[in-house]
Amino acid sequence: MDKRVKEVLLPNLGAWVVLMVLLGITAGSAFIPLGSFNTVINFAIAALKGLTVAIVFMSLKRPDPLLRLAAITAFVFLLTFFALTLADYLTRGPTG
Amino acid sequence: MSDAARPLLAMEALREPWEELERQREAASFGMWVFLASELLFFSGLFVSYAVYRAIFPEAMIAGARHADFFYGTLNTAILMTSSLTMVLASRGAEAGLRRFALWCLAATILLGLGFVVVKGFEYAKDIEDHLLVGYNYDLKPPESVLFWCFYWVSTGLHAVHVSIGIALIAQLLIQGLRSALPLQTTPQLGATALYWHLVDTIWIFLYPCIYLVGRAS
User: Fold this and answer.
1) Chain A touched by B181 (CB under 8 Å)
2) Which of A67, B7, B159, B185 allows an S-S link to B94, with CB 3.0 to 4.6 Å?
3) ipTM greater than cut 0.90
4) Which residues contact A41 (CB under 8 A, 6 or more apart)?
5) In this complex, do A64 and B208 lie within 8 Å of one another by their Cβ atoms?
6) Would you say the pTM of this structure is higher than 0.90?
7) What's the Rg (C-alpha) of chain B?
8) CATH number reported for the structural domain that contains residue B156 in this entry
């Protein structure tokens, strides 16, 4: 195989294998009764998969501060949105 | 084509107001990331509503989710993640000057994207047959489970629109690449389209546990 093709292929193929293994784990564990831990595992794995895509495929591992700043800003706004909304709905008492 | 002609050709890709290709590429990546941030917030409205409904009607949401098709959902997750691989290979291949390799990877990404849409079509057909289309023939009990299916149709529908836009953008890149002799990496479009495609994949990665993995063990 062309050396350049190999250089392009190998790291990304590695990330894809990680994604597929994580998909296998999350799909398999969904059928094991673990109570609320099923949800925890599923979303933890989704976060891991999302991070793998962002860091390897979306080039966040490249030392480009501008792109990292844009990505982190998006994440902070997302977190604020979730925190403010859930702080309301999850702390409401029983309604009559 | 001689090497001397290449830089001249590459300058054709330069647009106002940039003076060098490198700055243009940086600006395109940054602009795309800002757009992706807005896209993320756009979809997060749906995810927040999902979290709130799960908190208020846990039983009904789980009862609704049990009827989502696990096989089609998992298959589509694998297809979309593989298309992200071929997309990243296209953009990295172009950066390394592997033109033919990059064009083949773009074609593979289009095929995988179309595969995703076709599988989604089969899934939608099955959902409609199973009386799960809200406002048309929905008859699942308890009635609050309709909240799950509203989330399902709106989120997967919006996602499918994004996938279709992505396929069109990649197809345009492929046609452009086949027609012009311009080195693929000189225009910022390939990198920007790849970023968009990866975000569409990431959103699906989070939709998957929301829709297809709920209530399987209980």
Assistant:
1) no
2) B185
3) yes
4) A26, A29, A34
5) no
6) yes
7) 21
8) 1.20.120.80
